[in-house]
Amino acid sequence: MSRAERQLSFQAYLGKLVQYFFQGLIVLAPIGITLWVVFGLFNFVDDILPNIIHAIAPTYLTKDAQGNLNKIPGMGFIVVIAMVLFVGWISSLFFFSRLVTLLDTILEKTPGVKFIYSSVKDFLEAFAGNKKKFDKPVLVNVDSADIWRIGFITQPNAHEFGMPAHVTVYVPHSYAISGITYIVPRERIRLLNNLSASDAMKYTVSGGVTDVHEG
């Protein structure tokens, strides 16, 4: 192997390492940020909760050798879950839903914030909100004639791109929270009417390990 060939091989290997690094970063960053926010919120509640309880009931909590109030294990977790459930319930009421809508409008029009806010909001609503999108599982042919991927129709047509006979399909990756969006002709998809969206998602994300009708 010549020197030029060795240099080319090294550059290709280095490029592959950089590709793997950024691919791993894309997978780990959302998970790490989510865990950091969740545990940070739990720890924050755990830190301030003893002081709140002590202010209401001074004799309820004991103190350690350093004079600090003892924490109640698991109480922060319970309070955070209860708070999220309460916010979800109260936001469904008419008056508060109008306030949430107003705040939503402000955030979606705020420069620098609207991109992050709208992206996160649309992604979460696609799974569990009123605009649930990942509810139409399909088989989509995007490679060779006999190779199919499991995906979800997110838009019934592609008028915005001048392709009304095409549909937009999101194909999730296995063992990751990422995926690929395809715009394909309608005849290259097969509806999975006998399979629920949750079963299709579990089967895809698990790499086919999970049985589609497993409880």
Report what the structure shows:
The chain is α+β, with helices and mostly antiparallel strands. It has two domains: 3-128, no CATH class; 137-205, no CATH class. The mean pLDDT is 75. A hairpin with an 8-residue loop joins strand 1 (137-140) and strand 2 (149-155). It has five helices and five strands. The chain has helices spanning 3-56, 75-90, 94-109, 114-128, 197-205, and strands spanning 137-140, 149-155, 166-172, 179-185, 189-191. A five-stranded antiparallel beta sheet has the order 4-3-2-1-5, with helices on one face. It is 51% helix and 13% strand. The longest helix has 54 residues, at 3-56. The radius of gyration is 25 Å and the shape is extended. It starts with a helix and ends in a 10-residue tail after the last helix.
Architecture blueprint of SSEs:
Layout: H1 3-56, H2 75-90, H3 94-109, H4 114-128, E1 137-140, E2 149-155, E3 166-172, E4 179-185, E5 189-191, H5 197-205
Antiparallel strand pairs: 1-2, 1-5, 2-3, 3-4
Helix pairs in contact: 1-2
| Annotation, overall tally of beta strands | 5
Number of helices: 5
Tertiary shape = extended
Strand percent estimate = 5-15%
Structural class: alpha+beta
Average pLDDT works out at 75
Radius of gyration: 25 Å
What is the count of distinct domains?
2
Features:
alpha+beta; 5 strands; 5 helices; five-stranded antiparallel sheet; 2 domains
Short description:
The chain is α+β, with helices and mostly antiparallel strands and 215 residues long. It contains five helices and five strands, in the order H-H-H-H-E-E-E-E-E-H.
